[in-house]
Amino acid sequence: MTGQSIRVVIADDEPLIRAGIRMILTSDPSIEVVAEASNGREAVELVRAHGVDVVLLDIQMPVLDGLSALAELRVAVPNARVIVLTTFGERENVLRALEQGGAGFLLKDTAPAELIQAVRAAAAGDAYLSPAATRHVVDQLTLGKAAVRGEGARQRVAALSERERDVLALLGEGLSNADAGRRLHMSEATVKTYVSRILAKLGCENRVQAALLARDAGL
Fold first, then answer.
1. Total domains, the chain
2. What's the pLDDT score for residue 1?
3. Same domain assignment for residues 106 and 144
């Protein structure tokens, strides 16, 4: 994405919600909202018509719901990164979004700065989950499996410094960098540096994988 705008399509059946999301995203000069859709079918058509990088999809929409639109987009426009943005934070929706190839899951009460951060992360090829969504995924995927994977996870975590393990434990709780920084009395930028180092040492692609590993290791 270097030197280019991140091109975004917003899909939500409520005009005021779309307007609010557009206002937040366009406050960042690196993000361009190229189109808006009021239902899932329109979203798929717009993404196919425009060369976009990131799609923000509401779940509850007429004609075609967001998760069904996500499934179609992963086949029709596989390069477009999809973030599910919704008021419905049930575990099943989070897991379905991730299973169908979503690049992120955010609740609509997400802070504006986090929404921008999520779009940037998705455009860069990373996954981004809100802390609440992370907890849902971790709880579901570790259920009944922690004992099996625990020893391997503990061996991997042993390579971390004590401070890195502290940060990893908070990732396992689903905390954001800012919240983890407050807990550990460190700046958000310092936590971000630690997270990058942790992901590299553990061979994890994103925060969610690291959070799962933290739970498996019993942190």
1. 2
2. 47
3. no
The answer to whether 132 and 211 have CB atoms below 8 angstroms apart is no
For residue 71, the enclosing domain spans: 6-129
Does residue 86 sit within a domain? Answer: yes
Shared domain for 103 and 16, answered yes or no, is: yes
Q: Give the range among 69-83, 95-109, 130-144, 185-199 with minimum mean pLDDT.
A: 130-144
Predicted confidence at residue 91, as pLDDT, reads: 65
Measured CA to CA, the distance from residue 16 to residue 192 in angstroms comes to 33
Calculate the average pLDDT of the chain: 85
Cα 107 to chain center, whole Å?
Answer: 10
Query: For 38-54, how does the pLDDT look when each residue is reduced to its tens digit (9 = 90+)?
Result: 999 999 999 999 989 99
- As a whole number of angstroms, the distance between CA 120 and CA 53 comes to 10
Report CA-CA distances (Å) from 144 to 29, 78, 99, 149, 194.
Answer: 46, 33, 19, 10, 29
- Does residue 1 fall inside a structural domain? no
Q: What is the CATH number of the domain that holds 160?
A: 3.40.50.2300
Written as six digits, the tokens of 195 are 């997270």
pLDDT of residue 144: 52
Across 191-213, b (16+ Cβ under 10 Å) vs e yields bbebbeebbebbebebbbebbbb
pLDDT score, position 63: 95
Instruction: In whole angstroms, give the CA distance from residue 204 to residue 199.
Output: 5
